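#structure-requests
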Amino acid sequence: MSKHSSLKASGSAGGKRSVMKRFERVKVLKQRGLWKEGQSPIGLPKTKGVS
């Protein structure tokens, strides 16, 4: 029995992610000057990626 084509992982490795990891959001906030040193990384505001 073969796997259904929608279950194969061949195309999932190289796509663009629609979410940012926490360290990526901190990086964006630092670039915008909205990050203060010592600030908690929990509960960060939503950010759009830098293009």
